[in-house]
Design goal:
The chain has about 280 residues and is of the alpha/beta class. The chain folds into 2 domains: about 10-85, lambda repressor-like DNA-binding domains (434 Repressor (Amino-terminal Domain)); about 95-115 and about 155-279, Endonuclease Chain A (Endonuclease, Chain A). It contains 12 helices and 6 strands. The chain has helices at about 15-25, 30-40, 45-50, 60-70, 75-85, 95-100, 120-135, 140-155, 170-175, 180-195, 245-260, 265-279, and strands at about 105-110, 165-170, 200-205, 220, 230-235, 240. A hairpin with a 5-residue loop joins strand 4 and strand 5 (about 230-235). Helix 1 runs antiparallel to helix 5, helix 4 packs antiparallel against helix 5 (about 75-85) and helix 10 runs antiparallel to helix 12 (about 265-279). The longest helix is centred in the middle third of the chain and has 17 residues, at about 140-155. The chain starts with 12 loop residues before the first helix and ends with a helix.
């Protein structure tokens, strides 16, 4: 095809959206004119989307889902759109979320707060509201952030489900978020998570001290083809890494952490202790 612009889907969420739209169209043997007719847009609009010259809108994403049959699935264009519009996402995180939604194994370490996939809606809403008070986001963006998180969680409830291994720093269950009802419900949710057949939950107690190899968020993914990647972030920057020379040391540290952390039974007992102390 003359003057075909090739997109790098790893360059950003808008590019990823355009590349996916083109790929889905070509997989069905449709021209841009045909897709435009199905979706109710001009062929120029479809071309601009596919070349990332125009960012998608929610109606565009929903129309594409209806045409391709992706509505309500982890592959939905609406999900991709929300990744683009969620202003709280750090660099690299939108791509990480797409990979998380199809990973065979997910390993997480978190400090300070319960990680998103394990948060209750109420706990997540308190954190989002705090960001509003700080002036980081608007109240509308806070609501979008929470809805986006719920969508992220639903993507992990697929068949077959991924194996999810979580180690939480003790601060995650000690730092009060919201009122007692919010914290009690969150502790109960963690206990329910630990009961699931595809999960493992451990607490890294404060007593570990310097033996804890991590002091910030670390996520490790094993994809269906057994490839590995890591995602770590700071306050303002996220890093998605596929280089084994960088990922394998994190995998080793993660295994060491799981060995040193409290067992799941002891961790659940610790969470129960915190829950009882709140009530």
């Amino acid at each position: 095809m003359v003057n075909r612009k090739e997109l790098d889907p790893t360059a950003g969420p808008v590019q990823a959206f355009g590349a996916r739209l083109r790929s889905a169209r070509e997989a069905r043997g449709w021209t841009q004119d045909e897709l435009a007719n199905f979706m109710g847009y001009s062929s120029q609009h479809i071309s601009a989307l596919e070349t990332a010259r125009k960012p998608p809108t929610l109606p565009v994403a929903q129309s594409a889902d209806a045409v391709f049959g992706f509505t309500g699935t982890t592959e939905s264009f609406e999900r991709a759109y929300r990744e683009i519009t969620n202003s709280a996402l750090l660099e690299g995180f939108p791509e990480y979320l797409g990979l998380e939604a199809r990973a065979a194994e997910i390993r997480m370490f978190e400090s300070g707060y319960v990680p998103g996939p394990l948060q209750t809606r109420e706990y997540a809403q308190v954190l989002a509201n705090c960001a509003v008070v700080r002036g980081d986001i608007t109240s509308e963006q806070a609501d979008e952030r929470v809805e986006f998180l719920i969508e992220r969680q639903s993507a992990l409830l697929r068949t077959p489900p991924p194996m999810i291994f979580v180690v939480l720093d003790e601060s995650c269950i000690r730092v009060p978020i919201g009122d007692s009802d919010v914290m009690v419900a969150q502790m109960e949710h963690l206990i329910e998570f630990a009961r699931m057949p595809n999960t493992a939950l451990q607490i890294a107690p404060f007593s570990m001290g310097g033996r804890n190899p991590f002091n910030q968020l670390v996520h490790l993914l094993t994809l269906p083809d057994r490839s590995l990647m890591s995602y770590v972030d700071s306050q303002t920057q996220g890093y998605l890494n596929r280089e084994l020379t960088s990922v394998l040391p994190l995998v080793k540290n993660c295994h060491q952490l799981q060995t040193e952390a409290a067992s799941q039974a002891d961790s659940v007992a610790m969470i129960n202790e915190v829950r009882r102390s709140i009530t």
